[in-house]
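Protein 1 of 2
SEQ + STRUCT:
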Amino acid sequence: MPAPATTAPATTIGAVVLARLAAQAEVLAALEPAVRADEPDAVHRMRVACRRLRSALQTYRRLFAEGPARELATELKWLGAVLGQARDREVLGERLLADARALPPDCRPERTAGRLAAWFRREGDRLRPEVVAALDSTRRRALGADLAALLADPPLRGRAGRAAVPEFSRIAAREQRRTADRVRTALAAGPGPDGDTALHEARKAAKRARYAAETAEPVAGEAARRYAQRMKAVQELLGEHQDAVVAAAALRDLAAGTDPGTVTGADTGTGGDQGCADAFAYGVLYARQLAAAAAARERLPEVWARAAGRRLPRFG
């Protein structure tokens, strides 16, 4: 009598998550020379790799023994924060310089853009040594070694052996609910500092949900891609809001003369009229940032509605 046919086991969630970690670890290591060489966009891409690694370790933390994965996530947060300071200044610079050049002639756009460009150069010169020092540190080397050790001998729990697609669907639904809670909180808070903080938290939740779906894409296909795209739209809208809030705060400091890059009439030797002209231009830019933040808040219900569907996390 022939032996009964056997069915190959479904791909496990543990195997897919480990593949995601391995791929992002490779990206992280490959980008280090580019960051050291100060190549365009290298800091941004390395920061994203840190975030994707950390997000996977947090979102799928129950697949791993608690100690090693949690410690590694903490170290990735540290490296991402160091890279983030430099990257945030890049984003702020690109945004404000583009807006400054579009100012009306009576705001002296080229002069304003020149002042801002000089400030951002000084900020870059200040922050770059901190990034290089972090890459040279024993802490960074230990992070790389710990990540390699986790991938070589993964501390997986039993639940890592579960079929991938049903588990990814369950986790995507959980992340969708988590994001929905934060979006509701943000909308209820309304404009103002509390609302800005709540919208930033909603952005982080949407990003984590997006990354969770990206991890699932190799096995969940188009359904996971659609989920990731909807969450990315929410993330990007709230990113626009956050960028506008940060830019407005920087411009407020510049106009008040409290930022290291501020140039006032007293320190240029050109008289108070020049300082007033700078402050006026910064005020115009400030108003534009407030308008951009308000526009993003107004669009959030519409954009979130496309990511809130109950069927969206059903990957199987």
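Protein 2 of 2
SEQ + STRUCT:
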Amino acid sequence: MRYVPGRCLLRQLIHEQRKTQKWLCGRTGISQSNMSDYVRGEKKMSANTMKTVAMALGVHMDDLYEWIEITIDDSE
């Protein structure tokens, strides 16, 4: 079993916490351009970036995306 990130949930998390992208950029050092790309789903975050963002928001890394389960064919 394997998982890949699906839809990014940053927009909802930022809204729920009554924060802004600008605030999150300041806390993480991520550029506004990159943060906007993550929020819109145009870029996927690396593991390091996910950890940084999750720590800034006080959530688990798993909470940043909807995760999609991929089945792997073990017969090969």
